[in-house]
Design goal:
Shape of chain A: globular
Order of helices and strands of chain B: HHHHHHHH
Radius of gyration of chain B: 22 Å
Helix content of chain B: over 70%
Largest sheet of chain A: none
Number of strands of chain B: 0
Distance between the termini of chain A: 20 Å
Number of strands of chain A: 0
Structural class of chain A: mainly alpha
Number of domains of chain B: 1
Oligomer: heterodimer
Largest sheet of chain B: none
Helix content of chain A: over 70%
Order of helices and strands of chain A: HHHHHHHH
Shape of chain B: globular
Radius of gyration of chain A: 19 Å
Strand content of chain A: under 5%
Number of domains of chain A: 1
Chain lengths: 170, 196
């Protein structure tokens, strides 16, 4: 697994050179886009990180987690993941804020940290995508789109716990 | 969004008053802002690097290559879209761009795909193919989850990419559940795409 990134990066460059693509120019163009992305997400990210930071500092987040713990424990689900699962389909930056909170409390290489990472990496901001795509096509009746999309999100959360447990051990 | 934001702040304040955590809260709010900016700066390096490499992939024509690779699978998922139509081309290119993590490229392709799908089926009700397409776009199908890896790294992860396999398995399962449930609901509601 540790070789995968260098292999991708090196083979991309070699392939680009064979194809006579100006890879330096392309890379620079991509970096520009990357910066644009950061600039685009920064204001909402800062706002939501402040909100989550406030929740954490006041102790309210721990309190909510304590309320959920007995319920989550019954089905063997890590309670720290609950706020993440609730926020993920609604707000990407909000979920990222929760994710960093989990990293801070449990560490990125902990079981919960890994589960939360997998959830963040394998889901999208469902409501945003649904609104944007149907809005662009002028569709008013979206039938069962939201049901199926949210079912997929729910699956991702449940499956992440199982798969991380299988691969890394609980 | 305002309600979520407002509720989070108000709840924190109320809880701090009740539990006597006000002093932690007053130092915690500015700290949160500082660490938010630090975090953004620390992940932007990795994000820019990946956008750079993925841009090389795009300029090499890898999006079109991937699109051709997926055509046989996509034909089954979109039975009412002709494989040589513009709609099909946009759909496969959108999926390929998503796979490479090129959100900036994927979104406009996806919007074009939706407009083409609307032309095939002109009504304000979503067609089966539209539902399938939007569900595929709400499940993240990304080869390299760069943002998550950048975040993990900035919080001191030893191997930010060691979750790669888990992410792939989870997204494939989630996508399958989304698509299968959509197919089941379609069949139960008695509207099959190929009958229309």
């Amino acid at each position: 697994m540790e070789a995968i990134i260098p292999v991708i990066v090196a083979s991309l460059c070699v392939y680009g050179l064979i194809k006579r693509v100006n890879i330096f120019e392309s890379f620079v163009e991509g970096v520009k886009e990357g910066f644009e992305t950061v600039r685009f997400i920064a204001p909402t990210m800062i706002a939501l990180l402040v909100a989550v930071g406030t929740l954490r500092a006041s102790g309210a987040l721990d309190f909510i987690a304590e309320l959920i713990t007995p319920l989550a424990d019954k089905i063997g689900f890590p309670p720290e993941l609950v706020p993440m699962g609730l926020l993920r389909p609604v707000s990407g930056s909000g979920a990222t804020a929760i994710l960093t909170g989990i990293y801070e409390d449990c560490g990125p290489d902990s079981f919960v940290g890994r589960c939360a990472s997998v959830v963040a990496g394998s889901t999208e901001t469902t409501f945003y995508a649904v609104t944007m795509y149907y809005g662009a096509a002028g569709i008013k009746k979206i039938r069962h789109t939201l049901v199926s999309a949210l079912l997929a999100d729910l699956t991702a959360i449940a499956v992440s716990v199982v798969i991380v447990g299988l691969i890394f051990g609980p | 969004m305002s309600y979520i934001f407002g509720a989070m702040i108000a709840l924190s304040f109320l809880y701090a008053v009740i539990s006597g955590n006000l002093s932690q809260l007053s130092s915690g709010i500015p700290e949160a802002a500082t660490s938010a900016v630090e975090l953004l700066i620390s992940i932007s390096g990795m994000l820019c690097m990946w956008s750079g490499f993925m841009r090389i992939a795009k300029d090499c024509g890898l999006i079109d290559k991937l699109a051709r690779l997926f055509a046989p699978i996509l034909k089954r998922l979109y039975p009412d879209v002709a494989p040589e139509s513009d709609a099909f081309r946009y759909i496969s290119m959108n999926i390929s761009a998503n796979l490479l993590g090129l959100g900036n490229a994927a979104t406009p392709l996806g919007l074009s795909a939706m407009r083409e799908l609307r032309r095939i089926n002109d009504s304000d009700t979503a067609s089966d193919s539209m539902v399938t397409f939007v569900v595929m776009n709400t499940a993240s199908i990304q080869l390299i989850p760069t943002t998550v890896a950048a975040l993990r790294k900035s919080y001191g992860s030893q191997q930010p990419f060691d979750i790669l396999l888990c992410v792939w398995m989870t997204s494939v399962t989630a996508l399958a559940v989304g698509l299968i449930s959509s197919r089941i609901i379609t069949i139960f509601s008695g509207r099959r795409a190929w009958k229309r």
